[in-house]
Amino acid sequence: MSPQTKRLFFWFVVSFLIVSIILLSISLVRNFSKPRLVSLPARELRGVWMSRFDYTQLFTTHDQDSIKNYIHDSFLKFKKANFNTIFFQVRGNGDTFYASRHEPWSDFLTGKLGQDPGWDPLAFALETAHELGLELHAWINIFPVWRGTIPPPVTKPLHPYLAHPDWLICDREGKPMPLSSSYVNFSPGIPAVQDYLLKIISDIVKRYDIDGIHFDYLRYPDKAQLNGYSHDPISITRFNSQTGNPLRLDWSDWQREQLNVFVAKAYNCVTTLKPEITVSAAVVGSYQMAQWNGYSEVFQDARRWVEIDKIDLLIPMTYYSRHQRNFSFTNALREWKTFLGYQRHIYPGLGAYALDWKEVIEEIHEIRNNQLSGMVLFAASSLDEQKLLSLQSTEFKFPAIIPALVWKDSIKPATPVNFNIKKVDSKSVEFSWQLADISSNHDRIKQFVIYRSLKQPIDLTKGENILAIIPGSQTFYRTEFKILDRRYHYTITSLDDAYNESLPYPSVKID
Q1: What DSSP character marks residue 170?
Q2: Residue 467, pLDDT score
Q3: Residue 147 falls inside a structural domain
Q4: Which pLDDT tens digit goes with each residue over 310-364?
Q5: Which of 19-33, 48-62, 159-173, 376-390 has the lowest mean pLDDT?
Q6: pLDDT grade for 31, boundaries at 50, 70 and 90
Q7: Is residue 409 part of a domain?
Q8: In what order do the strands lie in the sheet with 466-471?
Q9: Are residues 376 and 336 both part of a single domain?
């Protein structure tokens, strides 16, 4: 090798080492600057939206057994993948998937609007979810009243589109929204519309044992600014009157206030009837930062709802990629994280229907690293077995307790008593316990949590220490027995309707 060649080789090696050191340094800085999760959280809402299209439009038949089997099998898969909450759609556009006294059955169930399908999807979904220990929230579209190019047929009860044509949203020229393949909406600025919707909400709350009620399309329609929605005669009259606009708000603020007033009324309606029910809303993915946002484009002031304590959960539909130009998922999280000071839960919605699965996993990491305590995936039909197995083996490896609603109730429930473990045979072990005497504590026990750990005291904040979450109606749990299970210490706690947790029972071991 010539002297010149040696020099070139020497400088090549030096340059390579310098570049390698720089790249390694950058990597280390990035890794140290990004928070790392030591373990999976013990408290996290893991939700999924199951739309009416998911459970009715995947089939070529309206056979109820096919639909029931889909709902049951899906819920079972979600349970195995350690989800804990289902947002189950029961009202689309003035039609229902439950036995309503006010609106007709959806044609999705039979092929004919208003025809009784002979079963109740909401009742079936509730029974199935609760048997599995899943929380179920009844998901209703609020202001949409029809969807299609021709009007609904005459039914009994009469469809609201036909019953109240004077309630339709109008453009700036006073013309009602035309029929199309998109939703036609009722106007939020009409008091009778709000009263009607409150009647729908209270009917569901009174007659069904739901864990929560979930509002969607709680806003003016898309292109509200462009089309001047809603210059209907009633809204115009109210806006221009002292009684209808006592604060003399401008047009945009007045429309936002109509939604604010409705949210407050709806929250009061639900919590007066059943204080334990969780009230939530799916909201536009950006509050105000993105070009298309809830506040300016559809008059949705979600921040105001948490400011006045009239919502329990906000679920922004942050269906963006982390690498999206103009406005990314990271931008959205940064915006919604500012809401945490209002002591309400913010659970970003993830667009599993459109995003690469690796992107969804990275967004779950980002949610956790930003101290947001849960997420909801859209939609049920987008989560195939491979994706669910991916969650079950990694990000949702252990069960998780739903974060407590401390503004509803912050008192710990009573600890279970007589917690015992016994081997049933060589392959199984059974845990049993009893409810405490709750004469001094009237909280309903919603769930029990069994923990196990090799260490004492058992750390209740680590997800890997949760063995199982059991419905509150059950006082035993049987599982597979392995020799190594004798090494663990076990304890049990109870959870009330607000997900407050009792003190743990003194730890025990398998004999």
Answers
A1: B
A2: 97
A3: yes
A4: 999 999 999 999 999 999 999 999 999 999 999 999 999 999 999 999 999 999 9
A5: 19-33
A6: very low
A7: no
A8: 466-471, 445-453, 489-496
A9: yes
List all residues 6 or more positions away from 262 whose beta carbon is below 8 Å from its beta carbon: 188, 194, 197, 218
Average per-residue pLDDT for the chain: 93
CB 136 within 8 A of CB 213: no
Who's near 84: CB < 8 A, 6+ residues apart?
Answer: 45, 46, 47, 133, 134, 135, 399, 400, 401, 402, 469
Q: Does 249 share its domain with 341?
A: yes
In this structure, what CATH number is given to the domain that contains residue 432?
Answer: 2.60.40.10
The DSSP 8-state label assigned to residue 484 in this structure reads G
Yes or no: say if 199 and 102 are a contact pair by the CB < 8 Å rule.
yes
Predicted pLDDT of residue 28: 45
**SS3 category, 283:** strand
Which letter does DSSP use for residue 315 in this model?
E
Q: Is 119 left (phi over 0), alpha (psi -120 to 50) or beta?
A: beta
Residue 218, SS3? coil
Structure token pair of residue 153: 């047929």
Put residue 206 in one of left, alpha, beta given phi > 0 → left and psi -120 to 50 → alpha. alpha
The tokens describing 269, both together, are: 């309606």
Q: How many helices (H) and strands (E) does the chain have?
A: 14, 17
Cβ 344 vs Cβ 297: under 8 Å? no
What is the arithmetic mean of pLDDT over 300-311?
Answer: 98
How many domains does the chain divide into?
2
Same structural domain, 325 and 471:
no
**Same domain for 334 and 432?**
no
Question: Order of strands, edge to edge, in the sheet holding 417-425?
Answer: 417-425, 428-434, 476-480
Check which CATH number belongs to the domain holding 275 and give it. Answer: 3.20.20.80
Query: Residue 473 corresponds to which amino acid?
Result: S
As a three-state string, the secondary structure of 97-128 is CCCCCCCCECCCCCCCCCCCCCCCHHHHHHHH
Identify the residue whose tokens are 């509150």: 472
